[in-house]
Amino acid sequence: MTSEVQEQLEQLKLQDAVAPVDRAAAAAAVGGSAVAKSASGRAVNPRRIPMPIAVAPMVDVTTSHFLKLCQIISPNFTLYTEMIHCNALVYNPKDLFNFFGEPWEGKVVQLGGSELEPMAKAALLVQENGYKELNLNVGCPSPRVQKGAFGAVLMKTPQTVVDIIQEMVKIGVKIPITVKCRIGVDNLDSYEHLCDFIRLISTTTPVTHFIVHARKCWLKGLSPKQNRSVPPLKHEVVYQLAKDFPHLTITINGGFNTTQQIKEQLELVDGIMIGREVMDRPMFLSKVDAAYHNIPASELKSTEEIIDEYLEYVLTEHTRGTPHSNAVVMAPLKMLYGGRRGREYRRRLAATILPKTKPLPDIVRDVRAMLEEMDFNSSASEAEAEAVSDNEAENDGESSKVISG
C-alpha cells in the first residue's frame, strides 16, 4: 500500500474517531423511511437493490444471448454482462451492442481495465447507449487479466480504483457505478485490508454498492478454475462487512445453489449473486421465482415456452445481422434439460446447429422439429426437478473456460 493511500486511510479513521458515523441512521437514510430489522439485527431496506438476486458476470457464459435467455425465463433478476476490456469499446464503439445486447432495466455492464482515460471513455459510451448501471471488475484472477494489471490486481492498488472512478465522474458518467472484488488477494487477505479497501473507495467516490466474492484469490500458482474452489469460502467475512458498513450496499457472491441458501443470505446482506448454478441449470431462475418471488406455478413459463420465445429472439438477431457464430447464438439453450433426456437433447441440438454455415432460420426450424419429435412437454418446474435430482450423476456442467468476473 502506498504512503499516499495509507495517509488517506489514517485521516478517515481519525475522522471516524472524532465524529463516529451513526450507522443505523445512515442505513435508514438510504430508503428515506423506516427500516426493518432482519433476524440478524442488520438494517434491511429492499429498495437498496430493486432486484437483489443477481446472475454473476462470467466470461464466455453471460453473453448478450445468455442474458436474453435469463430475461425470458424471468425479468426478476439483475443480470451482469461478461467482462469487456475498456479498449474493446473505445476502439470499437460500433460493436457495443454486439458485446452487451440491448439495454434494459436490471442489466449491468461489467468493465475491465486499469488505465484512467480508456476506462472513463468506455464508461461514458456505456451510459450514452442507454445502459443503466456499470460494474468495475476488481476480482478476476486470470493470467490475461493479470498481464493487463486489472481485475484482482487492483485490490493491491486501491488508489487506482479511486482514480478510475473519479475520472469517470469527471467526464460526466452519472449512472450508478459498483465494484466487484474479492475478500483478499495473495497475502493481502486480512479483514483490516478489506475494510480499508472498502472505506477508501466509498468515502472518496460515489460508489456505495460492493459485490464481494467470499473467497480470496492467489494470482500465482492457481488457475482461475482453482481460484473458484481451492481458497476456502469465508461467508462470515462478508457478513461482518455488512455489519460494519450498514450504510453501504453489500452483495455476497460465492457457493450458493439452493433457494433456501438464497433466502438465508438475504437476511444477512443486501443482495446475493449466483453464477455456476445458473450456468449449469438456467431453469434454476424459475425455481427461485417460485420460492423467493412467490410466483405461482401457473404463471411460470414452461421450458418449451422459453425455448420458443428464445427462438423468436434468434430470428430477430438474424434479421439484425448478428456477427456471432451459430454456436454462440444457440449455446444458451443447451442446459435447459437435465437427466438422460437432457444429454440426448444436447447431442441432438449440437447436431442440428451444424454445419457452421447453416442459416439461423433453418436452425430455428430444425430445433422446433426436433423438440416436437422428442415430445418435451414437461413444465419448467418438472424440468428443474429432474436437473437437480440428476446433479450428482451428471457432472458435466463445469467449464474450465469460465472466469467469474
Helical coverage, percent range? 40-55%
Give the spatial strand order of the biggest sheet: 3-5-7-8-9-10-11-12
Shape: globular
Biggest beta sheet attributes? 8 strands, parallel, barrel
Average pLDDT taken over every residue:
85
Oligomer: single chain
Query: β content, as a range?
Result: 5-15%
First-last Cα distance: 23 Å
Q: Which stretches are low in confidence, meaning pLDDT under 50 for 5 or more residues running?
A: 14-35, 378-401
Radius of gyration: 22 Å
Given helix and strand content, the structural type is alpha/beta
Number of strands: 13
Number of helices: 18
Which tags fit this structure?
405 residues, two-stranded antiparallel ribbon, 8-stranded parallel beta barrel, 18 helices, alpha/beta
Task: Describe, in plain words, how this protein is organized in 3D.
- Residues 375-405 are annotated as: Disordered.
- It comes from Linnemannia gamsii.
- It catalyses: a 5,6-dihydrouridine in mRNA + NAD(+) = a uridine in mRNA + NADH + H(+); a 5,6-dihydrouridine in mRNA + NADP(+) = a uridine in mRNA + NADPH + H(+).
- With 405 residues, the protein is α/β, with parallel strands linked by helices.
- Helix content is 45%, strand content 12%.
- It has 18 helices and 13 strands.
- It has helices at 3-18, 23-31, 64-73, 86-91, 96-100, 116-128, 143-147, 158-170, 191-204, 235-244, 259-265, 276-280, 284-291, 303-320, 326-330, 339-353, 360-374, 380-389; strands at 36-37, 43-44, 53-55, 58-59, 78-80, 84-85, 107-112, 134-138, 177-182, 209-213, 249-253, 271-274, 403-404.
- It has an eight-stranded parallel beta barrel.
- Strand 7 (107-112), helix 6 (116-128) and strand 8 form a beta-alpha-beta unit.
- Helix 3 (64-73) packs antiparallel against helix 14, helix 6 (116-128) crosses helix 8 (158-170) and helix 16 (339-353) runs antiparallel to helix 17 (360-374).
- It is globular, with a radius of gyration of 22 Å.
